[in-house]
Design brief:
The protein has about 280 residues and is an alpha/beta fold. The protein has helices at about 5-15, 25-30, 35-50, 65, 70-85, 100-110, 135-140, 160, 170-185, 225-235, 245-250, 255-270; strands at about 20, 55-60, 90-95, 120-125, 145-150, 195, 215, 240-245.
């Protein structure tokens, strides 16, 4: 089954929430853990045990595992494998972007089922040109996986690139959405190629009808609300996957408290499916 269809079904049966598994050093300390590989492993696998059976998508941020070198990557491999075994889709947040054979190598590392890091989807950066990420899109489709393309992010530096105008007068972000509409054309019930659009961008004149899913980081502790998502995305709100990290993770290390926090946020965003 294609990724878009799998995600659509998962959101219908397990809810619309994506939980970020982001082992910040500060969170490890809040849990009473050392900022070490042992602390990383305890933190990450506890979160997996609590939330992966509950939500449709988990999103480990690769950087927080990479900082521990090969031992951290080994923990990430377990997070991916155990999350998928528990029924959650894994969206690996790597934000890779390069050209040619390097882009293909990233695709093979994260999307080929023979890789120990193989995930259901990844985040990618298109700012070397949309064509630069086509090896990742092609590989994702070959393996029934997906990609989420950075488009309108909520970091304060983003507008200098994303709001810039191309020769035809469109914004860079708008150009990305046009590419997404092209690659998702005729996909049912949802395309395999999504966009990353911040839940705290305020407002936008861009069109989000590109027939693909939206990852909306910033929900919860960062200030994004269900009302913000409805206002920003309008009729495309049912395609939005709100992503929450700290508002769930700060409930740890107690397993039951983590699970309850994930259920609470999942219930809060359930109404987006009625937009």
């Amino acid at each position: 089954m294609r990724f878009g269809a799998r995600l659509h079904d998962a959101m219908a049966t397990r809810g619309r929430l994506c939980v970020g598994i982001d082992p910040h050093a500060s969170l490890l300390h809040e849990w009473g853990l050392d900022d070490s590989v042992a602390g990383l492993e305890r933190f990450a696998l506890t979160v997996v045990e609590a939330v992966a059976p509950e939500v449709s998508v988990v999103k480990p941020q690769s950087a927080f595992y990479e900082r521990f070198g090969s031992r951290g990557i080994a923990v990430l491999e377990r997070v991916i494998a155990e999350s998928r075994a528990a029924g959650a889709l894994v969206l690996l947040d790597v934000k890779r972007g390069d050209i040619g054979s390097t882009s293909q190598a990233y695709a093979d590392a994260y999307l080929d089922p023979s890789s120990p890091l193989a995930s259901d989807a990844i985040t990618v950066s298109p700012f070397l040109g949309f064509g630069s990420i086509e090896p990742m899109i092609d590989t994702a489709r070959r393996h029934d996986a997906g990609v989420f393309v950075l488009a309108l992010t909520s970091n304060k530096e983003g507008p200098e690139v994303q709001h810039a105008r191309t020769d035809d007068g469109a914004t860079v972000a708008g150009t990305m959405f046009a590419h997404l509409a092209r690659v998702n054309a005729d996909a049912r019930p949802l395309g395999d190629v999504g966009a990353v659009i911040g839940a705290t961008i305020g407002s936008s004149a861009e069109r989000f009808d590109f027939n693909g899913p939206v990852l909306a980081p910033g929900y919860g502790a960062q200030g994004g609300t269900v009302e913000d998502i409805r206002r920003i995305f309008g009729p495309t709100s049912p395609h939005v996957l709100p992503s929450s990290s700290r508002s769930v993770l700060s409930a740890g290390p107690d397993l039951a408290s983590l699970r309850e926090a994930a259920r609470r946020d999942n219930e809060a965003v359930a109404s987006l499916g009625d937009a």
